[in-house]
Amino acid sequence: MTGTVYKSTGSWYYVKSDDGHFYNCRIKGKFRIKGIKSTNPVAVGDRVEFKLEKSQEGEEEIGVISEIKPRDNYIIRRSVNLSKQTHIIASNIDQAFLLITLNNPPTFTTFIDRFLVTAEAYRIKAILLFNKIDTYNEDELSEVKYLAAMYRQIGYQCIGISAKTGKNVEQVRELMKGKTSMISGHSGTGKSTLVNVIEPSLDLKTTKISEQHRQGQHTTTFAEMFDLEFGARIIDTPGIKGFGVVDIEKEELGDYFPEFFALKQHCKFHNCLHLDEPKCAVKDALDAGKIPWSRYKSYLQILKGEEDQHYRIDNYEQE
Ligand SMILES: Nc1nc2c(ncn2[C@@H]2O[C@H](COP(=O)(O)OP(=O)(O)OP(=O)(O)O)[C@@H](O)[C@H]2O)c(=O)[nH]1
Ligand SMILES: [Zn+2]
Fold it and tell me: What's this model's pTM, rounded to 2 decimal places?
């Protein structure tokens, strides 16, 4: 049978078969995936092949996973104990929404840009949701409009919403249909409020799934996938407000700023870092006002944060 992993506890996997039934599954033998040193071979979102076997008590049918299908993408974090190892949080994510509020709490452009760079590096489509627009005065609304226009120009979809009044939430729901989404954002930006307004029944489902999954209860929080009634899936990653970790070579960082990448071919040096090199198309565009300073500032900040030719984004927060 083929199915999708909805929950993982490290030893048990909760898998939904393509014909819509849930099974508790284990893995058989050792899984090795090329290039990944991971503490967990199977992650939430994975497409897997499994066979049913009778459990020892002979009552329940247990699935045995024999194969993981190639992943479109995956997000990781470093394992807590083994520094060289990583933990795959989730895979096969179609899109990630970032909830942004101007104040209460403030979301700075450097945080937005780090999120976008990480999404580009993971090849996950990113959508920016400016939440709490019901609370903004005229000045604040024009700031939201300015930011949205700036990010739209780069190619990112931006929507002003209110999770509280429901404004433009229907648009978000439409975007989610038929896809697997993640919802990120600082604490207090309205992630739970948005999920509740999108699908009020989700709370009930949450309880039901964890009840069915008693054997696998574990103290650590793991990612979990949920079906929404209108044909969408969301991946909840407790304790992770952003995207986890990604290592990027200094030379490739500019490639994850789409507007820099588009100009790169016009830089004199093919490996231009857009710092002090002569005839740099990115710096020229910056001087001509065609690239926003805030983006360039974020770029420098990420670049300067690098260690040993690498920089590391780590927006993993323990609750
Ligand atoms: N006025 C207004 N308040 C909102 C809106 N969205 C969320 N809030 C409020 O903001 C506060 C935080 O919302 P949550 O949904 O708990 O935020 P969260 O991102 O899930 O926060 P964490 O669980 O800490 O990560 C709550 O008091 C919400 O009622 C909105 O669109 N407008
Ligand atoms: Zn350059």
Answer: 0.87
